[in-house]
């Protein structure tokens, strides 16, 4: 099955009302490759502004969501609140949340289960640190993260996997096409062995980490790279070039 190319923009904790409006205007007037699924993820404070002003055909993701329906959970956002606001995706397990906010593999898996079972798609992130890569543990680390996910999740159809090596995030140090393809292929093989041929075949695996308009073309040609999760460059006009990278 042909997997639809997917480009996500993770704005992280960046942007003001005026700069976010500018990004949305730029996307609204751009000619975008219709064969690419685009999802942008502003901070929680800007979700509604973006949803209300963004063109049809681009979806919006939160950067986190909680795994309880509602109630006394100060500071959290629920899946039903997202859906009520027209937010159809969430990012979960980003390395910044795993490391800085100490979310465990299990917490990430439980949130992913809750979101997917309640109708919100998940861009589920995984990836190794520099130390782990240098110790030759990359595939082990990613496999352990996947195993924790598999322990909770049964419906994989609403999950997009983002492989984001921590050493490549925000550093300008992009993984080589070979390094990225090797891990993406290993993730697909893991899905084939541990979940099913169908899930391995259909699940999009995105690469994230210093993707820009210059390196996206080569990366996009790799057999197991089905798109990108873009941080810094998603805040710039060049994000359009990344979305359209297969056309160039
Ligand atoms: O973390 C990322 C996307 O989620 C990648 O960030 P950069 O593209 O800024 O390296």
Automatic annotation (TrEMBL):
PROSITE patterns: TIM_1 (PS00171), TIM_2 (PS51440). It comes from the Eukaryota. Pathway: Carbohydrate biosynthesis; gluconeogenesis; Carbohydrate degradation; glycolysis; D-glyceraldehyde 3-phosphate from glycerone phosphate: step 1/1. It catalyses: D-glyceraldehyde 3-phosphate = dihydroxyacetone phosphate. GO terms for molecular function: triose-phosphate isomerase activity. Its EC number is 5.3.1.1. One of its GO terms (cellular component) is cytosol. Keywords: Gluconeogenesis, Glycolysis, Isomerase. It holds the Pfam family TIM. InterPro entries: Aldolase_TIM (IPR013785), TIM_sf (IPR035990), TrioseP_Isoase_bac/euk (IPR022896), Triosephosphate_isomerase (IPR000652), Triosephosphate_isomerase_AS (IPR020861). It is an enzyme of class 5 (isomerase). One of its GO terms (biological process) is glycerol catabolic process. Homodimer. Belongs to the triosephosphate isomerase family. This is Triosephosphate isomerase.
């Amino acid at each position: 099955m042909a997997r639809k190319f997917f480009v996500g923009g993770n704005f992280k904790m960046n942007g003001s009302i005026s700069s976010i409006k500018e990004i949305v205007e730029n996307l609204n007037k751009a000619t975008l490759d219709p064969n690419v699924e685009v999802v942008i993820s502003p901070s929680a404070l800007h979700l509604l502004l973006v949803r209300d002003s963004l063109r049809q055909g681009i979806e919006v993701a939160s950067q986190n969501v909680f795994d309880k329906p509602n109630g006394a959970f100060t500071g959290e956002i629920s899946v039903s609140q997202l859906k009520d606001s027209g937010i159809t995706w969430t990012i979960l397990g980003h390395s910044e949340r795993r490391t800085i906010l100490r979310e465990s593999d299990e917490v990430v898996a439980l949130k992913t289960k809750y979101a997917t079972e309640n109708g919100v798609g998940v861009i589920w992130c995984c990836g190794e640190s520099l130390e782990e890569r240098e110790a030759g543990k990359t595939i082990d680390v990613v496999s352990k993260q996947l195993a924790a996910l598999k322990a909770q999740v049964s419906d994989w159809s609403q999950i997009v996997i983002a492989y984001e090596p921590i050493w490549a995030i925000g550093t300008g140090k992009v993984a080589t096409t070979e390094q990225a393809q090797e891990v993406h292929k290993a993730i697909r093989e893991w899905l084939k062995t541990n979940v099913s041929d169908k899930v391995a075949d259909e699940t999009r695996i995105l690469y994230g980490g210093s993707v820009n308009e210059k390196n996206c073309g080569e990366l996009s040609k790799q057999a197991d790279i089905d798109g990108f999760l873009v941080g810094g460059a998603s805040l710039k006009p060049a994000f359009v070039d990344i979305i359209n990278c297969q056309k160039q």
